[in-house]
Amino acid sequence: MSGVLSGRTAVVTGAASGIGLSIATRLIADGATVFAAVRSNESLERLREKALIAGGFVGQLNEPGVADNLVAAAVQALGHVDVVVNNAGGGAILPTLEHTEESLRATIDNNLWTTIYCVKAALPHMVSRGHGRIINIGADSVRTGLVDHAMYNAAKGGVHAMVTGLAREFATSGITANTVAPCYVRTPELATLLDSGCAPSRLVHVIEEGTAIVPLGHPGDPADVAAAVAFLAGEDSRFITGQTIYVNGGSSMG
């Protein structure tokens, strides 16, 4: 354990698997105490087997009031919250004209509204303490225009845009706000699906397109995203706010 985050507390949403699990385990390895938010009791039990989390919360964060309950539970368990990592997301990656009202609402709710609710719930606590780190997980596809991502990008674009306003508004309260935006990341769950040969052909096409535009020639790893989050959660990032850090192997630059 490096200890660079020793004494810090963090809430990580969408922590059950993939990028969220990698973020939680990296923050813990760096010395932070992590409170995890997941969608089901089964997911929480599986998470406890994989990571030494200090506590967990089960709920649908895209519903009004649930994020307030999450933050209250985290403060009760941890004493205070230094860092909130808004990783919870999901939705449909589809050609624009194949989206339905249901898939559109799920995409916006799961990505944008979940983040908005968690930010609003955490800010009063952070303001009262004069310190906080808000870290949103965005998407490199907002800049690259990856195939079938237009509606997903509408949601993630809001997540990106949020941090500039937050960074300026709450700078004098000791709070920084930043986004980490990964390209296609080969999570263990996605790798299992692809290796099984059962992945839908459209998904395979999107992944191939997403990999082809990466100059380094391969997708990201969840640990790559977690490393950027860990940096933003620590003291070395104290003068960085309102920024989007692209963890993308060069698929978008500038």
TrEMBL record:
UniProtKB keywords: Cell wall, Secreted
Keyword Zinc-finger: no
SUPFAM superfamilies xrefs: NAD(P)-binding Rossmann-fold domains (SSF51735)
Compartments where found: Secreted, Cell wall
Spans traversing the lipid bilayer: none
PROSITE patterns: ADH_SHORT
Pfam families: adh_short_C2
Highest taxon listed in the record's lineage: Bacteria
Keyword Secreted included in the entry's annotation: yes
Known catalytic reactions: a (3R)-hydroxyacyl-[ACP] + NADP(+) = a 3-oxoacyl-[ACP] + NADPH + H(+)
Family named by the database record: Belongs to the short-chain dehydrogenases/reductases (SDR) family.
Full protein name: 3-oxoacyl-[acyl-carrier-protein] reductase MabA
Highest classification ranks of the organism: Bacteria, Bacillati, Actinomycetota, Actinomycetes, Mycobacteriales
